[in-house]
Amino acid sequence: MKITRRTALAASAATAATAAVVGCSTNSGGGGGGEGGDIELSVATFNEFGYEDLFAKYEEANPGVKITHKKAATSDDARANLMTGLAAGSGLADVEGVEVGWWAELAQYADIFEDLADPAVEGRWLDWKAEAATIDGKLIGYGTDIGPEALAYRADLVGKSELPSDRTELAETLTGDWRTYFEAGRQFVEETGIPWFDGAGGTFNGMVQQLTHPYETADGTPVPLAENTDVKAIYDLLVEFKDISAGFKQWEEDWTAAFQSDGFATMLCPPWMMGPLAGNADDVEGWDIADVFPGGGGNWGGSYLAVPAQGENVEEAKKLAAWLTAPEQQVVAFQAVGAFPSQVDALADEGVTSAVNEFFNSAPVGEIYSERATAIDVQPFMGPNFFVINTVLADAITRWDVDGMDPAESWEQALTAYDELGL
Amino acid sequence: MRFTPFLFISPFFVLFLLTGLFPMLYTAWVSLHDWDLIRGQGDFVGLANFQFVLGTDSFYKALRNTFSIFLLSSVPQVIAAILIAYVLDANLRAKTFWRMGVLVPFVVAPVAVSLIFAKIFADSSGIVNGVLTAIDLPAVGWHSDALASHVAIATMVNFRWTGYNALIFLAAMQAVPREIYEAAIIDGTGRMKRFWHVTVPMLRPTIVFVVITSTIGGLQIFDEPRMFDTGGQGGASRQWMTLTMYLYELGWGPQVAFGRASAVAWLLFLIILAFGILNFLITRRIANAGGPAKSSR
User: Fold this and answer.
1) pLDDT of residue A23
2) Residue B15 phi/psi, 5° resolution?
3) What is the mean pLDDT of chain B?
4) Does B266 or A380 have the greater pLDDT score?
């Protein structure tokens, strides 16, 4: 009796494992030449790249090419898939979508991606966009979209204070450094009792993206956290103004719910955030976007197309990636799903600049974000340790902003956590 | 030498060798190396990975959280499952309906359960805190206080597994010969006494089975705590990071340190082994003590 049970248990575990193995094998072997000289190309993306219609167009213009699209629901799923495929040495799509943040850890494996540098695409992108994907002189990704940050705000709530609620006037009032933005917020909170921004975590993210070398020096050596005065200064500034934060962690249940309950008046907003924001704030009127960002310009997110060297049709894949990221196509993608183009020519394109967003009080978002994109002069250096260190900081801020711990104690814990990384 | 019997039992052993024993030994091999997720095998480092893991606060935090969540889920779960099974074993109207009913939560995917409970246990917009504040009780920091987060996660686990275990107990209860109950009734025992001195001892092998499987499952808990917030790292102070989450963070997180992750996997294996044996001995003894055969009264 006992043996049977144990056997059954082990057998069922074995079956489950076999199923997993089989599941893996069906997943592998993307791409590969088809019959009769046909070329099959696979493209892996996540969230919304806006390429669906473009694939059909490319197939039409290039007879014999067949494109299959693998779309992951979230960027985390896509990252896990990419890392697993790279580790296994097979199973990746011919063209892989890569989020800008992943370069940090992928940079050390630059040789497993094709060098995409080509005179034909030189100068196609904003300088900092192409630079972020250039590793040791190799261009390993073609830029798709970017995330220039502007300020989203509730005009009706701001109108309750003495601050101007008009988007142009508010932009003028808030132009300046972060302290200007926070001081205005303190005045707002005193007058209305409503928190000024959604949470210190999201705000910290915007501030850190303006440093040239947030956590590591140019050669990738991590700066010990205890000596990182730039980051500590940002931390301290946020602590000084912690009373005007609503204390929500982005993407958490409470943050999502706060859009429906006048939880806060402003938040940092890259173009791709407009969709989630409008979704969370469904039926709430008053949201607007101002052409201003504290401390100048800032970028949050954006993606690339990369060609893994393990693919079978590397040359064809390069051609496809180059075509998809050309200004004309990115304008189409922008119109389809709002992915804001990273190409210089696309930014000036009528199809982009004339865009308005009705949810945000018909704000001329195309014009505003083009303006915000040109204001960006820094793409922070992200070495292989960017993410581990950034997580330590993000946790430290969550501990006092959301969990209510003493900020000084939280900083001590962050120092311990940093040491634990053993960098 | 006769081969036929070995041939008949070979499918299980071949499968076990391929999918059980080999990965286990390979993990041990990986744990002795500096092993990058993508680059693969690096230098042989001996026990340095184990040393590193055992030297971090995170490991002990993960250990604490794992055991806390395990105790908060398994103990009430087994007790509740036995009681539910006892009720279902009685002559109820619409028996099948009730029996199917307790299994419904098990059909729901763990991720879906987590999404629902995320709304229930949200700190400022959740139902639980809404009810608490409505009756003038202080709101609970489900995502800030460690113990509170463990209770919330244990609730999800219990929601899913109690009914399943209840059905296992129910099956065992129905196998108890009715004559024993009849004899007990003739001897004039009450309901409670019958439950304690007939039902529970007769369930002994099943209790051992359920306790051991829920020990293994409980110590490997991953889905529920990972889905407890959107970050999936176990909270800003790692309030609810379990051992498997720590393993995942080391191996697939930005550190991509497979050697360290494998070291955690082996430590977890040893802990489960030790704890499983301990539980087996304890449950056997408890069940024995109350058993009719070795009654010490």
Assistant:
1) 38
2) -60, -45
3) 89
4) B266
Mean pLDDT in residue range B271-275: 92
Distance from CA of A252 to the nearest CA of B (A): 6
Q: What is the pLDDT of residue B231?
A: 81
**A261 to chain B nearest CA, in Å?**
10
Residues A61 and A290: their CA atoms lie apart, in Å, by 41
Taking alpha carbons only, the member of A35, A414, A100 closest to residue A235 is A414
Q: CA A121, CA A140: separation in Å to the nearest integer?
A: 13
**Alpha carbons A369 and A339: distance in angstroms, whole number:** 11
How does pLDDT run across A202-252, given as a tens digit for each residue?
999 999 999 999 999 988 899 999 999 999 999 999 999 999 999 999 988
What is the nearest CA distance from A346 to chain B, expressed in angstroms?
Answer: 34
Q: What are phi and psi of A167, to 5 degrees?
A: -65, -35
Nearest-angstrom CA–CA distance, B271 and A110: 39
pLDDT at residue B296, rounded to an integer: 40
CA distance A4 to chain B (A): 12
- Please answer yes or no on whether B237 and A9 come within 8 Å at the CB atom: no
Q: Which region holds residue A98: left if phi is over 0, alpha if psi is between -120 and 50, else beta?
A: beta
Beta-carbon separation of A9 and B213 below 8 A: yes
Query: Mean pLDDT over residues B69-96, rounded?
Result: 92
Burial status of residue B292 (CB atoms within 10 A of its CB: 0-12, 13-18, 19 or more): exposed
Q: What's the mean per-residue pLDDT of chain A?
A: 88
More confident: B254 or B165: B165
What gap in Å lies between CA A245 and CA A181, rounded to an integer?
Answer: 12
Contact between B172 and B203 (Cβ < 8 Å): yes
Is A395–B236 a contact, with Cβ atoms under 8 angstroms apart? yes
Q: With a cut of 70, which residues of chain A have pLDDT below it?
A: 1-37
Give the residue from A109, A110, A103 showing the smallest Cα distance to A143: A103
Tokens (6 digits) for B243: 């051992």
- Going edge to edge, which strands form the sheet with A287-290? A266-269, A150-154, A287-290
Per-residue pLDDT tens over the stretch B35-61? 988 888 889 999 999 999 999 989 999
Nearest to A311 by CA among A94, A112, A88, A114: A94
Cα nearest neighbour of B115 on chain A? A253
3-class DSSP assignment, residue A154: strand
Among residues A55, A87, A84, A90, which one has the least CA distance to residue A69? A55
Written as six digits, the tokens of B253 are 């997180």
Question: Which of B284 and B43 is assigned the larger pLDDT?
Answer: B43
Structure tokens at A323: 């075509």
Nearest to A393 by CA among A407, A376, A378, A379: A407
What is the C-alpha end-to-end distance of chain A, expressed in Å? 53
- Cβ of A257 within 8 Å of Cβ of B125? The answer is yes
Supply the ipTM of this predicted assembly: 0.82
Whether the CB-CB separation of A404 and B271 falls below 8 Å is answered with no
What is the pLDDT at residue B289?
56
Give me A378's structure tokens: 């820094």
Please tell me the distance from the alpha carbon of residue B236 to that of residue B234, in angstroms, as a whole number: 7
CB A148 within 8 A of CB A340: yes
Which of A232, A215, A207, A229 has the alpha carbon at shortest distance from A391?
A215
What residues in B contact A421, CB-CB < 8 Å?
A: 255
pTM, full prediction? 0.83
- Chain A positions in Cβ-Cβ contact with residue B229 (cut-off 8 Å): 249, 252
- Cβ pair B244, A381 in contact under 8 A: no
User: Looking at residue A73, what is its pLDDT?
Assistant: 79
Tell me which residue in B19, B123, B236 faces A398 most closely, judged by beta carbons. Answer: B236
Amino acid occupying residue B214? S
